[in-house]
Amino acid sequence: YYSYLGLAGLQLICSTLVIIFCRGTPRSRGYERVNKVKITNTDSMSSREKFEDLGKNIKTIIKNKYFWICVIYSITKHGVYFALFSLWGVPYLRDIYGEAKSKCVAVLMTGNAALMLGSLITPIIAKYIFHSRKWLLFFYSSASLIIALTLTILSYKEIEVEFNLNFVIFVALGIFFSGNGILFSLVKEYY
User: Fold this and answer.
1) What CA–CA distance (Å, rounded) separates 171 from 128?
2) 85 CB contacts (<8 Å, ≥6 apart)?
3) Model confidence over 38-95: pLDDT tens digits?
4) What is the pTM of this model?
5) Residues near 151 by Cβ (< 8 Å), separated by ≥ 6?
6) How wide is the angle at C-alpha 49 spanned by C-alphas 58 and 39, nearest 5°?
7) Helix crossing, 133-156 with 180-190: angle to 10°?
């Protein structure tokens, strides 16, 4: 419980530092525009015109078929992550292995730490190893599915597995669940 609060507190401190030190836009700091599409200057627009423009942009996004592929990916990926790492992880490990709750929580915290580490290394892996974000997302999804199927088969067949192997399994799952960071940049490229 306190470790989750500690991580949440660290996240709050980091986001507060970002708010304090990151001022303006990249263009106001002299950086080139990444997206070459002409952006409308909204400074002279009324609130009504801004909302109409926002509605038009939302319609454009919703009509794009690639957006929905990313939405389905994101929903299913987050669903599995939250189900395993927050709702069913401890009961699964406790019931299957008969271990103490604190030991099961340690496995899940290790997986969450791997998710954070994976979020840092995933863009590097996408750029230098896969040379593509979509193929890395495909690999991460395939690997997650294989691990989930392995867990299911091990549970169903009641095969004895050393409890400490779960640390390795959950670290791998944490890293493979970290692909959402590049998913959002992939969506941004469509627009």
Assistant:
1) 22
2) 108, 111, 112, 170, 173, 174, 177
3) 666 667 778 888 888 889 888 888 887 777 877 777 777 777 778 888 888 888 888 8
4) 0.66
5) 169
6) 65
7) 140
